[in-house]
Amino acid sequence: MVHEGLKKVLNGVVAAAQAAGRAPEGVTLIAVSKTFDGPEIVPVIEAGQRVFGENRVQEAKAKWPALKMAWPDVELHLIGPLQSNKAAEAVQLFDAIHTVDRPKIAAEIAKEMRRQAKPCKLFVQVNTGREPQKAGIDPDQADAFLAACKEAHGLEISGLMCIPPADEDPTPHFTLLAEIARRNGLSQLSMGMSGDYAKAIACGATHVRVGSAIFGTRG
Ligand SMILES: *Cc1c(COP(=O)(O)O)cnc(C)c1O
Fold first, then answer.
1. Cα(160)–Cα(186) distance, rounded to whole angstroms?
2. Among 13, 33, 55, residue to substitute to test ligand 1 (most atoms within 8 Å of Cβ)
3. How remote is the C-alpha of 79 from its chain's centroid?
4. Residue partners of 23: CB distance under 8 A and separation at least 6
5. Distance 193 CA to ligand 1 centre (A)
6. DSSP label of 156
7. Which atom of ligand 1 is nearest to the CA of 210?
8. 64-100: b or e for each residue (b if 16 or more CB lie within 10 Å)?
9. With contact defined as beta carbons under 8 Å apart, do 54 and 33 qualify?
10. Which CATH architecture has domain 4-17+25-214?
11. Is the pLDDT of residue 135 over 80?
C-alpha cells in the first residue's frame, strides 16, 4: 500500500542523502505522529513505515500499546521533554529516548532500565540555540554531561539531538551538534524536521524527525 506523504518524504530522504554523497540507509526516518490517532497512523504503518516518534508520554500511552500489539516490529521514539516522574512509563513504552538533558533524568532512566531490564537507545538533547524556554543541555556543558551519563549513571549514549531555533538558519546548529558528537565519539545525530531535513542530512543526520510533511498539518 502506498501513502503519498510517506512516499514523498522517503524520496526526499534518499535524494538528500545522495546529494550529500551518503548512503540513504544511513538515515532513519522517524515519522512523528503526535496529535494524530490510529486511523491516520495505520495507513503509514501499512505502507511499511516502522519507526515513529511521539513527544508526550501520556499521549503515546493512550494510542501506541494497541498499535504495537498489532505491529510488534514498530519502534517508538520519545522526542519530547521528559519529566522524571514519567521515566518509568517512558522506559516501558519507548525503544528510544531523544531527550536526556539533565542529571536527574539520566539517573531516573538508568534506574528504570535496570529495574525493568529494558534497554532504550538514548540521545542527549543539546540546546544549540541556548533558548531559555527550550529543553536540552547547554552546548558548553555537553561534554561534561556526556561523561557523567557514562561514569555516574552507567548509561550508554548513542548520539545527540537538537531542535534549532525556529527563526534561524538551522545549518550552524546542525554543524555544532555534529561537532559535539564528533569530539565525544558519538555516531548518531537526531536532527531535521519537515522544513529542514535535507539540510540536516547534508550535515550528517542519522535520524530525521518528520511529522507534518508525512501526516499533514496538525490541527
Ligand atoms: C513535532 C516535532 C517534530 C516534527 O515536526 P514537523 O515540523 O511536523 O516535521 C520533530 N521533532 C520534535 C522534537 C517535535 O516535537
1. 8
2. 55
3. 5
4. 17
5. 6
6. P
7. 9
8. beebbeeeeebebbbbbbbeeebbbbbbebbbbbbbb
9. yes
10. Alpha-Beta Barrel (3.20)
11. yes
Among 79, 133, 217, the mutation site with the greatest number of ligand 1 atoms within 8 A of its Cβ is 79
Read off the C-alpha cell for 158. 548513542
* pTM for the structure as a whole: 0.98
- pLDDT for 33-90, tens place per residue? 999 999 999 999 999 999 999 999 999 999 999 999 999 999 999 999 999 999 999 9
Which ligand 1 atom sits nearest the alpha carbon of residue 163? 13
Compute CA distances 18 → 36, 41, 177, 193, whole Å. Answer: 31, 28, 21, 18
Quick one: which atom of ligand 1 is closest to the CA of 195? 7
